[in-house]
Amino acid sequence: MHDSILLFGATGDLAQRYLFPSLLHLLRDRLLPENFRVVAIGRTQHDDDGFRAWLRERIDEGDGYSGALDDLLSRIRYHALNLNDTEAMAAALAPYADRPAVSYLSTPPNLFEPACRGLKAAGLLEPPSRLVLEKPIGHDLASAREINATLKEALDESRIFRIDHYLGKAPVQNLLPLRFGNTLLEAVWDNRCIESVDIVVAETAGVDGREGYYADYGALRDMVQNHMLQLLALVAMEPPAALDADSIRDEKRKVLRALRPMTAADAASDSIRGRYGPGVVEGRAAQGFKADSAVETFVGLRAWIDNWRWAGVPFRLATGKRLPSRTTEVLINFKPVTHWLFDRPNARGATPNRLRMRLQPEETIELGLMGSLAAPEWGATELMPMSLDMAMLPPKRRIAYERLMIDALKGDQTLFVRDDEVEAAWRWIDSISAAWQQAGTPVHEYPAGSWGPNGAEAFLPRTVGAPSGRR
Ligand code: BG6
User: Which atom of ligand 1 is nearest to the CA of 359?
Assistant: First the structure.
């Protein structure tokens, strides 16, 4: 396991909210190597002590712990660097090339290239050192290809770790065991038994301080290209021959490549875009998001995977900001039974089986079944929807980044996205942007705190937002 991490973007929001807290938890739980050290790199001027004091004010040690934060801070050195100044970077960072390191670029993608140049000059990309990159990897297929090509000039794909933090979430890691560890599920996991699949990522948060980025990216590029397509790929992939990183990533890539490109003719039926206006979210007044560009904060899509297993099964994807509740879930909607034998409810009223995997806010899995509480006073057999519920209670709820940082230090790429996956995802996303442009797909305003623009219902499951558990 490598024991040296260089964190670029150390004064940024992500580092404060997730990366340093993850390191703190890992240290606290003694999951990091003895000589673990952090080299923090940012633009703001600080000396080591100044940075430590700045960080101390922003990190919560957690109840019942003491000493862990001091321990973390004592392991941090800070450098204020301009990443475009290769010479200065090389001079400041060369001393850290004494040990294999993980360089973590939590920076905008336009800094990937200069950062690689400086790291290379400092000797920090020599094998077995590794590079971790935050999303977004580009803005479209062409820019993603450029970034991937630049990275490859600096180091081999086996040492490049592209983060999608959804893959660090425990319930996302449970998708493969659930599918491939259960005969019961895998036997019915195709278009003979499944009618449709819903993937929903609803947030109450707005674009909050990231207006510039969002005006450029919108929900399609910010959420669908990565998190939602990774969920889709894990739900739809074929069983891998083995559980190594490349076997899994090969199968995910095949799914992404089988996504049917959207055409302008399909844009109206297979997609919807919205942007939140003023409203009330969770009891609090919220302002609308204003941008000069036609950009969406809500997107609904009907995706089609053109392969043997999924022919004819719509995958509905919906994500939005400033929606009424924070809900992330995947629903597998099974077909109704072929012949309905019972009096009540009649075939149309019956609820077909449904598997609901909820990732947020709570982590639950619920299998909806039909059953009967036969009672003599009911003349006929009365069927009702019932559910088998499984609450996933991991020993400790962890930040997704904790797992990803450990894996990067160990060199396990399973939960990181490979270059060809990123490019396959962009290819599909580009087809949607082009279809929207050609068809002039409008961006409808929706009040903050509502479930998206008129027409969004067609892309959202009926039960979205309902608490998990029996209804
Ligand atoms: C990020 C997006 O990748 O994921 C944000 O850039 C979004 O816009 C966030 O809010 C959602 O992550 P989570 O873990 O809160 O669901």
Answer: 16
Q: Report the nearest-CA residue for atom 8 of ligand 1.
A: 222
pLDDT of residue 471: 34
Residue bearing tokens 């024991």 = 3
- Host H or E run for residue 370: strand 364-372
pTM of the model: 0.95
Q: Ligand 1 mean position to 213 CA, how many Å?
A: 13
Residue 206 has pLDDT above 90, yes or no: yes
Mean pLDDT of 162-190: 94
Asked if 97 and 128 count as a contact pair (C-beta separation under 8 A), the reply is no
| Token pair recorded at residue 146 | 């450029």
- 311 CB-near residues (< 8 Å, 6+ apart): 191
Whether 203 lines ligand 1, by a CB cut-off of 6 Å, is: yes
- 227 catalytic per annotation: yes
Looking at residue 217, what is its pLDDT?
Answer: 96
Q: Cα of 235 to ligand 1 centre, how many Å?
A: 20
The active-site residue out of 139, 227, 339, 444 is 227
Per-residue confidence band for 470, with pLDDT thresholds at 50, 70 and 90: very low
Strands 314-320 and 194-202: parallel
Position 445 pLDDT exceeds 70: yes
Residue pLDDT, tens place only, 73-110: 999 999 999 999 999 999 999 999 999 999 999 999 99
Q: Is there an atom of ligand 1 within 6 Å of 222 CB?
A: yes
Q: What percent of the chain has pLDDT over 70?
A: 94
- Per-residue burial over 376-396, b = 16 or more CB atoms within 10 Å of its CB, e = otherwise: eeeeeeebebebeeeeeeeee
Give the residue from 210, 214, 296 showing the smallest Cα distance to 14: 210
Q: What pLDDT digit, counting tens, does each position of 356-378 carry?
A: 999 988 888 999 998 877 666 65
- DSSP character string of 194-254: EEEEEEEEE-S---TT-HHHHHHHHHIIIIIIIIIHHHHHHHHPPPPSSSSHHHHHHHHHH
Cβ atoms of residues 274 and 453 within 8 Å: yes
Minimum-distance ligand 1 atom for the alpha carbon of 169: 14
Counting ligand 1 atoms within 8 A of each CB, the residue from 227, 325, 397, 403 with the most, and so the one to mutate, is: 227
Q: Which atom of ligand 1 is nearest to the CA of 205?
A: 10
CA 450, CA 447: separation in Å to the nearest integer? 6
Cis omega (within 30 of 0) for bond into 336? no
